[in-house]
Specification:
Elements (H helix, E strand, L loop, with lengths): L7 E5 L3 H12 L3 E5 L3 H20 L5 H9 L1 E4 L2 H5 L4 E4 L5 H14 L5 E4 L6 H5 L8 E6 L8 E5 L6 H12 L9 E5 L8 H17 L5 H10 L6 H8 L1 H14 L8 H8 L34 H17 L5 H12 L5 H5 L4 H15 L8 H5 L5
Parallel strand pairs: 1-2, 1-4, 2-3, 4-5, 5-6, 7-8
Antiparallel strand pairs: 6-7
Length: 390
């Protein structure tokens, strides 16, 4: 199949991610079959898409004609079999529950035409395991969008163990032509199925470092966030945890503890916050108070002079070299591109750390490992030898 053959796309799941993916697919001119289990979910999703388009019309960034055309491209379904009829491509966007995804893929494999590609918008789960639920593992691929889809540019295109080159290439070319309200989407190839793929994998050691530092009382969240914000970041790392949800953070740490190292086991403060349902912005309280969903006030005067954000950058570089060694990513430059477009920064960790010298980055990682007692932070052979080019 060629990308030109794709005319109709099914989106399974109409939540924030699902209707967001459907929105930009419809904007790109594709017929979109949006499926969910209840009509009220479909109606809510359609309303949100319409409101999103209307906002752009109000800003004169979109014409009413373009909005009407895009809305006309979307059709809601509560019958999965009907939603999958005559499609060329499917994107699953249901909650991160493996058994649910396996059930969805088994059913979609049964209902979809034999030529259709089946993609999962998972942030962590194995594409290979998901593909095993189908009779077409060569046509199953990962397609990880970032929230909010209408504003975030990165899309990770993930190769499962049995994903064919044709499937990878068609999927990559498909989303490369899409745009959202910030600009052209930026797809990055993830050449091997690995925990966390690229963006979330580089976030794993950063999350471990920050969780451990708070657990041991080494860092004060506001002081650390103030330091990061004082050098131009829009949001500090602890504020970001709250914003994304401490339940999401807990889930990620548990997953990485299972598939990467027991050292990622969630710390007690995180377990406690979840037990108390203090999950961050979504509940009004987490590490910070979020009154009415409003962002916490962080006093930049409280910036911790002892906290060096480059520690986190060095750990991300080290993690990136693990992906290079494993053949997950083809280059450090691609990893930087993923980190920039997934997080909204100006520079990626490799570009930021290059000026230090790779030997100094390796030395910093070893010092952090010894200071924290976390072996995962020890530098790789690639980093120690400086076999990195940008």
């Amino acid at each position: 199949m060629k990308v030109q053959d794709i005319k109709t796309i099914a989106i399974v799941g109409s939540g924030d991610m699902g209707h967001g993916i459907g929105e930009i697919a419809a904007l790109a001119g594709y017929k979109v079959n949006l499926y969910d289990i209840k009509q009220e979910f479909i109606d809510r999703a359609m309303s949100k898409v319409k409101d999103s388009f209307a906002k752009q019309v109000g800003k004169q960034k979109m014409t009413q004609e373009a909005m009407d055309k895009a809305m006309g491209n979307m059709v809601g379904y509560i019958d999965l079999k009907a939603a999958m009829k005559d499609i060329d491509f499917m994107v699953e966007a249901v909650p991160e529950i493996l058994d649910l995804k396996l059930k969805i893929f088994k059913e979609c494999d049964e209902y979809a035409p034999k030529h259709a590609i089946l993609a999962s918008n998972t942030s962590n789960m194995s594409i290979t395991k998901i593909a095993a639920a189908t009779k077409r593992p060569d046509k199953v691929v990962g397609l990880h969008f970032f929230n909010p889809v209408a504003m975030m540019l990165l899309i990770e295109v993930i190769h499962g163990d049995k994903t064919s080159d044709e499937t990878m290439n068609v999927t990559f070319d498909l989303v490369k032509g899409w745009k959202n309200f910030r600009g052209a989407m930026v797809p990055i190839r993830v050449e091997k199925d690995t925990p966390g793929f690229i963006y979330n994998r580089l976030g794993a050691p950063a999350g471990l470092y920050l969780a451990d530092a708070l657990e041991k009382g080494v860092l004060n969240p506001e002081a650390a966030d103030a330091k990061v914000k004082s050098i131009g970041a829009p949001m500090g790392p602890y504020e970001t945890m709250d914003f994304a949800g401490l339940d999401v953070y807990l889930h990620s740490m548990k997953y990485f503890a299972e598939v990467l190292s027991p050292e990622f086991k969630p710390v007690s403060w995180l377990e406690k916050k979840n037990a108390e349902k203090n999950l961050g912005k979504k509940t009004g309280k987490g590490i910070y108070e979020w009154p009415g969903g409003a962002r916490p006030t962080i006093d930049l005067a409280k910036a911790d002079p002892k906290f060096d954000p480059m520690d986190i950058m060095c750990l991300q570089v080290n993690e990136g070299t693990k992906l290079l060694e494993a053949g997950v990513a083809k280059s450090a430059a691609e990893i930087d591109t993923a980190m920039i477009n997934g997080g909204g920064g100006i520079f990626g960790p490799f570009a930021l750390c290059k000026g230090m010298g790779w030997d100094k980055v390796a030395q910093r990682c070893e010092e952090i490992s010894k200071r924290t007692g976390i072996k995962w932070f020890m530098p790789t052979e690639t980093l120690k030898k400086g076999n990195i080019s940008l």
